[in-house]
Amino acid sequence: MTDRRLPEHIAAQLRGAGGTADTGGQAWAGRNLGEGTSHTHLFPGDEGAADPGVLAALVALRAGAGDEAAVVAALAGARVFVPVVAEVSSSTVTEAGLVADKEADMALVSLRAADGRPVLPVFTSPQALAAWHAAARPVASDVRRTAIAAVKDGTQLLVLDPGSATPFVVRRPALWALARGRAWSPSYCSAEVAEAVVRSATGLPGVVAARTAPGDGVAARTTGGAVVPGGGAGPELAVVLELRPGLDRAQLDDVVARFQARLSVEPALAEDVDSMQLRLTTAG
Q1: Do 102 and 201 belong to one domain?
Q2: What is the domain-level CATH number for residue 255?
Q3: DSSP character for 212?
Q4: Which pLDDT tens digit goes with each residue over 248-276?
């Protein structure tokens, strides 16, 4: 028979409080209070292994045989682990000198991107989470549920396995697509975004052509310095504006300002682009 004795820290608290049941009246004895059980409530029988489809998509991306869209597609419907930590809101010291937590809240762990935006970390397995934050506890959730909660909370970025050799950032448009249960394609591959860029440049004096390309921030780097062609925090879209030679500073500033003003009212860019950079080139 499995040993069901209470862990010593729980027994100590019970000796100080003088009770054998929780605040709901349920007995502590006989419960499994050990580690490794926090993910089983919503996913009975789940052993906590990383989703094989997600792992395969990440391996392919790192090898240069996959892309960002394949990783996000693999994430759709997958189970991940969200880190939570206990935050004591009220405590007291008993006559026996024990600290008794009167009230405690479970809080999601959040991060901040370099630009100040909130980021939600998620993990493929409890082991990956523990390696990143030993005090956090894993709560299992399907990716869509997690994405919906993040969007409602105003979070614009999700990072998969931070602290690993190659974390993967799910930027705002991909996060929204996961929340809606829709397929996602990067903005630098979008025909609608490319058409909007060309439309915004048409008729501007001094402009020869305009096109889109992957931004400098699409790629990520492993801890060893190798470049991974996806999963970066951005900028994700590069807008290339080709200008005729000979424009002076005033003309250049004017055409760029007018171009950016047109881009700002294009629905495709507002919906499908998380971050953008402008590259200026000279024709010929």
Answers
A1: no
A2: 3.30.70
A3: E
A4: 999 999 999 999 999 999 999 999 999 99
